[in-house]
Give the backbone structure.
Amino acid sequence: MKPAKFDTQPSPYFLMESAIVDYTHANIRKLAATLSSDDPTTTARHCFEWVRDHIAHSMDFHREEVTCAASEVLQQGTGLCTAKSHLLVALWRANQIPAGFCYQRLTLDGPNPPYCTHGFTAVWLDDQGWYRCDARGNSKPGIHCEFTPGQENLAFPTRYIGEHDYPEVWAEPWPELITAMEHLQNITQYRAHPIDACPSAADLCVSAPAAPNRQ
């Protein structure tokens, strides 16, 4: 399905560096350079596919390491969906492509609670506006995420009671989410008590009507 179009121009905040989006780290800059091309959309796709295919989703691959900052995700080679989004945004911004963070509230498994915060990304493409895409990885049956501007291919639909798709694109990850991630000891702890964070203030985000999702 075609996503709802929203073309609010990105502010400089969508190119900024932070403790989580630490894209001037030497290893991130080196990788970003290898993924760069003369065409920004091609560069954006290269970055997306690299994170999707090379960073192991913690739960799919039964990894116990907890990563958060982009450089940490790259170093360890693993992360939750939220952590993978931190690295992807860092790679885009290292290539001077504006990018931000998107979220859904989902059940962890099946139709019933507990709920978790699912993180993915949006990238600014001059000929498309903001494009939402999900690099969590296609290592779980039924998920097939691709980088297809003009066509959303998110990992999960929102279909159960209590689930929600947030239409905003944030310049920085939600602070409550980051605090919870930094307190995690291992992924086993996350499985028992998944993070169900609240949105941050909307002063550093752009928004549009919620777009339909595809599994």
Remarks:
- Residues 60 and 141 are 10 Å apart (CA to CA).
- DSSP finds six helices and seven strands in the chain.
